[in-house]
Write a structure and sequence with these properties.
31% of the residues lie in helices and 22% in strands. By secondary structure, it is α+β, with helices and mostly antiparallel strands. This is DUF1801 domain-containing protein.
Length: 125
């Protein structure tokens, strides 16, 4: 079994269901994305550059769907929050599957992918 699969299997509910749903949306929306297991969490890369990752931050009660270049997307997608005072990363916090607007999330994925494809590197701050 791949480490990324083990990561999802070892999550408690409702986090496991939320993460698996987000994962399927990412993989089905962006067939060119590569799923990798880095820093003990799942990352989704385009052209070897990290675009988004899924995590549960210690002491939090939600799934953190974090966009690496989120600071450039937060005006267009107000659902993205600057949690944890991160310089560049912005994320969506999901406590339940119902918290995710699938149509808006798919649009966000396409925009993030397009933005990352035009960038020389993912981390610029």
């Amino acid at each position: 079994m791949k480490p990324v699969d083990e990561y999802f299997i070892n999550q408690k509910e409702p986090y496991q269901s939320i993460m698996l749903y987000v994962r399927s949306l990412i993989l089905n929306t962006l067939p060119e994305v590569i799923e990798r297991y880095s820093y003990k969490i799942p990352f989704y890369n385009i052209d070897k550059k990290p675009m988004v990752y899924i995590n549960i931050l210690k002491g939090r009660d939600y799934v953190d769907v974090a966009f690496v270049q989120g600071v450039l997307l937060e005006k267009q997608f107000p659902i993205l929050k600057n949690d944890n005072k991160r310089k560049q990363v912005r994320s969506i916090q999901l406590k339940a599957l119902e918290d995710l607007d699938q149509e808006n999330f798919v649009e966000l994925l396409h925009e993030a992918s397009s933005l990352l494809s035009k960038s020389k590197k993912a981390w610029f701050v």
